[in-house]
TrEMBL record:
Annotated protein name in UniProt: Murein hydrolase activator NlpD
Residue ranges constituting the M23ase beta-sheet core domain according to the UniProt record: 312-409
Keyword Signal: yes
GO molecular function: metalloendopeptidase activity
Annotated transmembrane regions: none
Domain (DD-carboxypeptidase/endopeptidase Mpg-like N-terminal) ranges: 96-159
Keywords: Hydrolase, Signal
Organism: Jannaschia rubra
Signal peptide: 1-19
InterPro entries with a match to the protein in the record: Cell_wall_metabolism_enzyme (IPR050570), Dup_hybrid_motif (IPR011055), M23ase_b-sheet_dom (IPR016047), NMB0315-like_N (IPR054512)
Upper lineage: Bacteria, Pseudomonadati, Pseudomonadota, Alphaproteobacteria, Rhodobacterales
Name of the encoding gene: nlpD_3
Length: 455
């Protein structure tokens, strides 16, 4: 039995061995050629570009690091040299000022521009500036292309404003308005014949004679009281862009020493023109100019009428100024009339008590909301200069009537009574002390050899 079991076990074991051999033989069948080729594929190593195009440098590594902790090799690319930019040569520029009677076309023709180019320049600049306002002293700058056409044209006009046209695929126009610098100036002169001549001889703005005539006309008789040798000291402000004056100079303080009386006038910086007048250091009155810095073009009295040609009584004074210049009330009061009065044109009238009235005529406009019965203070804007009614050009006709009768606006004292309370108090005296100190500092710093020299 035991031998039988042993033989059976050997038989089973042998069968299992044969089965294993058969299975092993099946697994060693030949691999298909395509599969074998795929298994043998390896990626190719990258080929470096030539050194003249891209230079690669191996970053040196420490040699004592074990192989399994060394960082990977880093390739550093050397930057290729930057290309050299071609610099265009500067364009030739032609410049000069406009002469009397010239047009922009004539100036551009002298610069060498063709008719078609001149028309294009005028069209571009005219979009931002009325070329009819071109006048002597304005400047023209022309930058030319190598072919002789315009690359850039600049028009330099008043107050430092520049209109520049750039020409490329299409014209581009821009306007530059500079921020002016406010400069304070002072001067001292002797009056020998008139305020105008004294200011002009000292190279100070002669137009200040009008301001002083308005301020002091009721207190000083400039024909009788000025015998020669009187001292006039003036401080003023100018707005400048470089060496160019922007707008008109503004008077800030003036002192007229007559020997036996010292008149001083201080103007505020708020643009109202509301000045305080002092006599020997005491407040005398407050006065607001109807048109600040305007030219006195016609005085009170009989004259040849500029339109009708006959001799007539001129019932006020005229101040020539640009259209649209602000017109201000000369004393506090109540608006008594706003409207039109025949040859006066557009008018505003202000009552200063029961007896005195001021009239402002030939106005181009009045503020919105200004109406009869409204209270106004000295220096309030009540209109703008115009040429309505019978007028030969833009001006303000300023009139003072007392009990209905016209009186000389530069000598009447009724407005002084209406306005004197506005300047009382410590504030006015502090303003005078500050103005005196500022003027003294300006004159001391300049220390001229010639007392008539502008400082």
């Amino acid at each position: 039995m035991r031998l039988r079991y042993l033989a059976a076990g050997l038989t089973v074991a042998g069968g299992a061995s044969m089965a294993a051999v058969g299975i092993a033989s099946f697994g060693k069948e030949p691999v298909p050629a395509a599969l074998a080729a795929a298994a043998a594929w390896q990626p190719e190593m990258p080929r470096l570009t030539p050194p003249e195009t891209l230079a690669l440098d191996l970053v040196a590594l420490p040699s004592d690091l074990p192989p399994d902790v060394r960082p990977p090799v880093v390739l550093a690319a050397a930057a290729a040299p930057a290309p050299v930019l071609e610099v265009e040569p500067p364009l030739p520029t032609w410049s000069r000022e406009v002469a009397p009677g010239e047009t922009l076309d004539a100036v551009l023709a002298e610069a060498g521009l063709a008719a078609a180019d001149r028309a294009e320049v005028a069209l571009a600049l005219g979009a931002e500036y009325d070329l009819r306002r071109l006048r002597p002293g304005h400047g023209v700058d022309v930058a030319m292309t190598p072919e002789g056409g315009p690359r850039a044209v600049t028009l330099r006009v008043d107050d430092g404003v520049r209109i520049e046209a750039l020409f490329g695929s299409r014209p581009v126009v821009r306007v530059t308005t500079p921020e002016p610098e406010i400069v304070s100036l002072a001067g001292e002169t002797r009056v020998e014949s008139s305020l105008f001549m004294a200011l002009d001889a000292a190279d100070m703005p002669a137009r200040f004679a009008v301001d002083l005539a308005q301020m002091l006309g009721g207190a000083v008789d400039f024909r009788r009281d000025l015998g020669g040798g009187e001292t006039l000291r003036v401080m003023w402000r100018e707005a400048r862009v470089g060496d160019d004056l922007v707008g008109q100079p503004e008077i800030a303080f003036a002192a007229l020493d007559l020997g036996d009386a010292l008149y001083e006038v201080a103007w505020p910086e708020d643009g109202t023109g509301r000045a305080t007048i002092y006599l020997d250091g005491e407040v005398q009155r407050v006065f607001a100019q109807p048109v600040e810095g305007a030219r006195l073009s016609s005085v009170f009295g009989r004259r040849v009428h500029p339109v009708f040609g006959n001799v007539r009584m001129h019932t006020g004074v005229d101040f020539a100024a640009a259209r649209g210049t602000p017109v201000r009330a000369t004393a506090p009061g109540r608006v008594s009339f706003v409207g039109w009065r025949g040859g006066y044109g557009r008018v505003v009238e202000i009552a200063h008590g029961p007896e005195t009235m001021t009239r402002y005529a030939h106005l181009s406009a009045v503020p919105d909301g200004l109406a009869e019965g409204q209270r106004v203070a000295a220096g309030d804007m009540i209109g703008r200069v115009g040429a309505t009614g019978t007028a030969t050009g833009p001006n303000l006709h300023y009139e003072v009537r007392v009990d209905g009768q016209p009186t000389d606006p530069l000598s009447d004292e009724r407005l002084a009574e209406a306005a004197e309370h506005d300047g009382q108090g410590d504030v006015a005296l502090e303003r005078l002390a500050e103005a005196r100190a500022t003027l003294e500092d300006a004159l001391t710093d300049a220390s001229p050899d010639d007392p008539n020299e502008r400082l």
